[in-house]
Amino acid sequence: MNCPMCHRWAEQPDLRIAELEHCYLTLNRDQFFPGYCLLFTKHHVTELFHLSSQVRQGVMEEVNRVAAALFELYQPTKINYELLGNMVPHMHWHLVPRHSDDPLWPRPIWSEPHQEASLTEQEYRHAAAAIRRTIGLPETGGEKAI
Fold it and tell me: Could you state, in chain order, the average pLDDT of each consecutive group of 10 residues for the chain (146 residues)?
């Protein structure tokens, strides 16, 4: 299968935050919105209704747990939650801390182009470790933490 999300964990280890029970959590490479993360299911599914009730509840708890940590760490005005799948048909959540003084506020993050903000390798590692710590996970390099 040629799904970019299915291979993301293996192919982008510098962005790894944590392997959770149902999902993988990574930083988005573009950190124009600091703390912007992707949470994607371990198994290739496209819709919430493709999951059993138990797994769906587990995924939603992981979304909630990550969002709460991002809120605590980045202290945004609002967390944006996006579950689209139109361009990448693999269930993945965009969890984006938004601040009322960001250049696109209050519009959606895709409302207009912006200059991509890349971090150094060390800055990505630092951000991932801070998120992991705030979630309450051990300071691993993104290995299974639950």
Answer: 89 96 98 98 95 98 98 98 93 98 95 95 97 89 48
Tokens 């639950």 map to which residue?
146
Q: How far is CA 128 from CA 71, 95, 111, 133, 141, in A?
A: 15, 14, 27, 9, 9
Q: Could you tell me which of 125, 126, 105, 127 has the C-alpha nearest to residue 114?
A: 105
- For residues 43 and 87, the answer to whether their CB atoms sit within 8 Å is no
pLDDT given for residue 139 in this prediction: 75
Amino acid residing at 60: M
Q: Hey, is 146 helix, strand or coil?
A: coil
Strand partners, 41: 23
The amino acid at 43: H
Can you give the residue ranges of every domain in the chain?
4-135
- Confirm whether pTM is higher than 0.85: yes
The secondary element (H helix, E strand) that includes residue 17 is strand 16-19
Fold held by 4-135: HIT family, subunit A (3.30.428)
Specify the pLDDT at position 140. 61
